[in-house]
Specification:
The complex is a heterodimer.
Chain A: H1 15-21, E1 63-67, E2 72-73, E3 78-80, H2 90-102, E4 114-118, H3 121-128, H4 132-144, E5 148-152, E6 163-167, H5 169-178, E7 183-187, E8 190-199
Antiparallel strand pairs in A: 1-2, 1-8, 3-7, 4-6, 5-6, 7-8
Chain B: E1 2-6, H1 15-28, E2 33-37, H2 43-47, H3 56-61, H4 66-69, E3 70-74, E4 77-80, H5 85-94, H6 102-111, E5 116-120, H7 127-136, E6 138-144, H8 147-167, E7 172-179, H9 186-202, H10 214-221, H11 226-229, H12 234-261
Parallel strand pairs in B: 1-5, 1-6, 2-4, 2-5, 6-7
Antiparallel strand pairs in B: 3-4
Helix pairs in contact in B: 1-12
Classes of the chains: A alpha+beta, B alpha/beta.
Chain lengths: ~200, ~260
């Protein structure tokens, strides 16, 4: 019997390019001593000219973390949010990308903070290869995470799909910062926002 | 006049195939084209099974006239081949004054006779690559669908910037060219996104991808150009489209440059 073909997809990590290009081995060329230090490479997902999210202090061992649903989270699972990918799992990212690119033919302005997308489940199913049930769950999670918002609900009588407002990475990071969502924890297959509950007493006291 | 260097510091990204096929496309569009191989491996001579009387090293060091060194391989297309002596030539050039301008000075008298000059370089950081960049000033970077070739593309972009500042020449990466593209591989999608990201970060346009095609290997084995083996090959269509786009990208600038120098 032939072994089953792997269905694993390879996720795109925007920070990988900077790693590849700016490593000491390849980050310079002929006569590179003649030029100034190369400017730091900016990936498209890190909000430019903004250090708030990136400069979060690493969580200390004394913090107690809690999800927005009130569950306690072990310290080891908590990560500061530096990239959008820190908050999304693979399915969420796939659906988000599909929604964002759904409007690519209409808006090509690059720096827009959001896009309006009218998308039904069936085109999304075709594009993402996910089931309708999964897409429904993922869209609910994306709305809860503030990545997308419903602009106009679907009209089942006119057979018009929901219109979503899909926020750009930069504006999502800005909104997260405004709402104090600075850390995330991976629990099972999902990623949730977490907040520090309280500072415990320093050890030895 | 179009001068184009095909370079990526990673090997095996289809630099030579791109150089040969694009040169042929330019020649087929009516431009008298010179294809120069500056790679000491002599891949173009091997691929097309050419046996010229003189090579690049003879042209540069022995100062032979260019017409005595080139071979016509099709209508409007001539090739200046390279061989192992090119390495020795590089060593000799190292000791010369204005060494980065060696190609420029040697080829200047012949430039007017050509509509396009395409230079294929070795996949390494070398003086010959710097000479080629200074001469051509336009760098096309083929990127195959693996991460190391993206890394090599980055190194090529940095080299272009460094040499540009070092010798005060307006060298620039004119376009990125995704090559050996096979959509069935998951990595292709990832690398395509990296190329897009690279394009946005350094403001370099991306040309249409060159799909993988068996005719490339078949043509190399037959020591012929793709256009002579299968004129309807999909890879040839891709290269023709990329060449047309590239001409559109370069044409206004080249023309303005020419008119400003007149």
């Amino acid at each position: 019997m032939k072994p089953a073909r792997s269905k694993k997809t390879q996720d795109f990590d925007p920070s990988e390019l900077a790693d590849l290009i700016l490593t000491p081995a390849v980050g310079s060329g002929v006569g590179s001593h003649l030029i100034h230090q190369a400017s730091p490479f900016k990936t498209t997902v890190v909000l430019k000219d903004r250090t708030t999210v990136v400069s979060i202090d690493e969580p200390t061992v004394d913090m107690i973390w809690v999800t927005e649903a009130g569950d306690l989270v072990p310290q080891s699972r908590v990560k500061p949010i530096r990239l959008i990918q820190d908050i999304l799992n693979a399915a969420e990212q796939t659906v988000y990308d599909a929604l964002w690119n759904h409007a690519s033919g209409i808006h090509q302005n690059g720096q827009q903070p959001s896009r309006l997308v009218q998308a039904g489940y069936h085109p999304l199913m075709k594009q993402t290869l996910l089931s309708k049930k999964t897409i429904q769950r993922v869209i609910d999670r994306l709305i809860a995470k503030d990545f997308i918002a419903v602009e106009h609900p679907a009209d089942i009588y006119e057979r018009k799909p929901t219109v979503y407002r899909v926020f750009a990475f930069g504006s999502i990071l800005a909104r997260l910062e405004e709402r104090g969502r600075l850390h995330a924890a991976r629990i099972g297959l999902g990623v949730v926002y977490v907040h520090p509950l309280r500072q415990s007493q320093p050890k030895g006291l | 006049m179009l001068k184009l260097m095909i370079g990526n510091q990673k090997g095996g990204v289809a630099k030579t195939t791109t150089a040969i096929t694009m040169a042929r496309c330019l020649a087929d569009q009516g431009l008298r084209t010179l294809l120069i191989d500056s790679d000491p491996q002599g891949s173009i001579a091997v691929t097309l099974r050419l046996k010229p009387k003189a090579y690049l090293s003879n042209f540069i060091l022995d100062q032979l006239p260019l017409p005595d060194c080139v071979l016509a391989v099709s209508d409007n297309l001539e090739v200046l081949c390279s061989n192992r002596e090119t390495s020795a030539m590089e060593q000799r050039i190292f000791t010369m004054y204005g060494r980065e301008h060696v190609f420029q000075n040697a080829l200047r008298p012949y430039e007017a006779g050509y509509g396009a000059i395409v230079v294929d370089v070795a996949p390494s950081i070398s003086l010959l690559q710097a000479c080629s960049m200074v001469f051509c000033q336009n760098v096309l970077i083929p990127i195959s669908m693996d991460t190391l070739s993206v890394s090599g593309a980055g190194a090529t972009i940095f080299s272009a910037q460094a040499i540009s500042e070092g010798v005060h020449a307006p060298i620039r990466a004119v376009a990125l060219l995704p090559t050996i593209v096979n959509r069935r591989y998951a990595l292709t999608g990832v690398v395509s996104q990296m190329i897009e990201q690279l394009s946005q970060a350094y403001n370099i346009p991306v040309l249409n991808p060159i799909r993988t095609d068996q005719v490339v290997g078949r043509a190399a084995r037959m020591h012929k150009m793709i256009a002579d083996v299968d004129p309807h090959a999909k890879v040839l269509d891709d290269y023709a489209a990329a060449t047309t786009t590239l001409l559109k990208l370069l044409q206004p600038q080249e023309l303005s440059h020419e008119t400003s120098t007149v």
